[in-house]
Amino acid sequence: MKKKILYVYEKRIPLQLRSLIKKKILGYGFSFNQMNYQTSSSLQKKHFSSADAVLFAPARFITTDIMTKAKKAKIFQIWSSGYDKFNLGGALKLNIPICNNGSQNSIAVAEHAILLMLSCARKLIHFYERTVNGNWKNNSHGLDLIEIKNKTVGIIGFGKIGKRVAQLLSGFNVKIIYYDKIKLRKKDEKKFNAQYKSINYLVKNSDIITLHLHLNKKTKFIINESSLKLMKKNPILINVSRAELIEQKSLIKALKNKKISGFGIDAHYIEPTKKNDKLLNLENVISTPHIAGSTYDTYLRVVEACLNNIKCAFNNKQKIKWKIN
């Protein structure tokens, strides 16, 4: 009998992407049920009880009493790198392996971080609007723009994505410093042309700061009023990880006071975003709708990785990867 995958998705996920995932599931020889996070609890329980594996794409909150129905499941597979919106506490009680995607989206996220850096440095949206409106008169002629070359870039979080950002920056002739809970060996720092510094040193001395961390109790508000005050004048701040890594009220104050010259954000405090957001409407903010890790290439890589991991869970001779429990 075919193994049955429960595919759990968010209603706003495009039909084309859902179809791609279903096609891949069938291509691996699995059967599947599907549900979204708004499906009735009774039907959710029914689906979990018949699942041999659960693919959360993306990971959102499912109550513990529903997850406990997954008595047959060999794996809970999350298709994203982050899992802060997932009921990890409830899932941990079930003795089921819980895995993320092993940062399969690292290429796309790192490229997006560079995109936002350049966009802030060159005030892309501002000058785009001037161009399409024919409003060239009294523009700054670039006196308020900077090059990235010779700047100090501080990377907070030096996992797979942070390292990828460092690699991409190698062609810009920048000085790279990083902060992470794990300090690299000297030979590995040399490989990435990066130097370990304390977070206070990094915040105080970086022209560009980019965040690449999971959100948890230790990292929440890692950028706060105190660290914002430490920053040198007019740095660029990039957040393509989770909004709550930065304390919002202090961030807005710093942006309004032009303490920060540009802020690029992809993951937001409220999603989907709403019109007239007091942060997003500031002129020195460039935002995107949580798409940093979303490219066609990434989707193919992520789905293949997740389904291969699920396949390993059904084969006792193969080890599953990227366990977060």
Adjacency order of strands in the biggest sheet = 8-7-6-9-10-11-12
> How many strands in all?
12
Q: Which percent range describes the beta-strand content?
A: 15-25%
- Rounded to the nearest angstrom, the distance between the terminal CA atoms is 29 Å
Mean pLDDT: 95
CATH superfamily of the largest domain: NAD(P)-binding Rossmann-like Domain
Largest sheet: 7 strands, parallel
What CATH calls the topology of the largest domain is: Rossmann fold
Notes on the protein architecture:
It is built from 12 helices and 12 strands. The chain is of the alpha/beta class and 325 residues long. It has 2 domains: 4-104 and 295-313, Rossmann fold; 106-287, 3-Layer(aba) Sandwich (Rossmann fold). Strand 10, helix 11 (248-256) and strand 11 (262-265) form a beta-alpha-beta unit. Helix 1 packs parallel to helix 12. The longest helix has 18 residues, at 296-313.
Compact description:
With 325 residues, this protein is of the alpha/beta class. The protein has helices spanning 15-27, 41-49, 64-67, 88-92, 106-121, 124-132, 160-169, 186-192, 199-205, 225-230, 248-256, 296-313, and strands at 4-9, 31-36, 53-57, 76-78, 98-99, 152-156, 175-179, 194-196, 208-211, 236-239, 262-265, 285-287.
